[in-house]
C-alpha cells in the first residue's frame, strides 16, 4: 500500500528537508504514492522546489479551519507529518492544525515536538514549555471515538539542530570564534537536521497492521546528537574538521540576541526559542544524549560533530559564503 503523505510547514527547513528526502531518496520513493506540502508561503523558493520534484503544494491560511479540513480531506492523505511552523503564532496555528487533522480523520500522524520541553519551566522557557501543551492536545485524540486520528500516533522530540551553529559563520570566518551563551561547563548534543529528517521519513513510510509500523506506532522518540559537548569541545570538533583553530566564546544572553537578530533570518519567536534552549544548557538540563531511537529506526549512527562541520566547512572557513546554503540530508 502506497502512502499518501501530507507535511505541514514545508516552507521551513525541517518540513522542506523531510519532503525532499521522501521525493528523492529511493529508500522512500518506492513506498509513497503522493506527497503534499502545506505552506504558509506557497510562492516561497522551498515550496516551488518541492513542486518541481512532484509535491502538491497546498496554501495554508491560518484562521480558516473549515477550508483547511476540506483541503486535507481532498488530499485523501492517510499520513500527516505535523510540524509546528516558524511563526510568531506558532502555538495557535499548531492547535488549529491538530484540530484540522482530527476533523479530517487522518489516521497516522507524526508530531514533531522539541527535546527539553519536559524540562522547561513556564516562567523561564515559555516557548519550549508550550510543546508539552501541544503534545497533550495531540495525544488526547487517542481516546476520542469521534475520529480515527490518534489511532496510530508518533511523537518525535528533536534536540538542538546543529545547523543553528551556522548562524555564527561570520564570527567563525572573520574572528575564528564560536560565540554561544551556553556557559563554560554544561554540555549539549546538537543533532544534524538531516538525521532528524531520516528518522521522520522512516516513520512516515513505515507500515504495520494498525497503520504505522508496530516498531514506531505509539512511540515518544527523543533525538539528540551522539556526542555531549561543552562550547570548548564543540569548537575543538570544528577545528579538527576545518583544519584551523576555532575558539569558543561564552557570551551573555543579551549579546546572543544581538547576534541572532543581526545574522539570522528566523522569526523573532524562533530566536526566543533558541535563547530558551541555550538557557536549558546553562541550567544543566541538556547533559544527556538519546540516540536509541535513531539507531532503532534507521539502523545507522547519527552524525558526529566533526563530520557535521566537514559537511559545512565552506560556511565556516575564512572565504566568501555561498549565496544559498544547501542543507544536508545526512546521507552518505
TrEMBL record:
Top-level taxon: Eukaryota
One GO location term (cellular component): nucleus
SUPFAM superfamilies to which the protein is assigned, alphabetical: NAD(P)-binding Rossmann-fold domains
Keyword field: NADP
InterPro entries linked to this entry: NAD(P)-bd_dom_sf, NmrA-like, NmrA-like_oxidored
Domain NmrA-like intervals: 35-260
Family: Belongs to the NmrA-type oxidoreductase family.
Protein name, per record: NmrA-like domain-containing protein
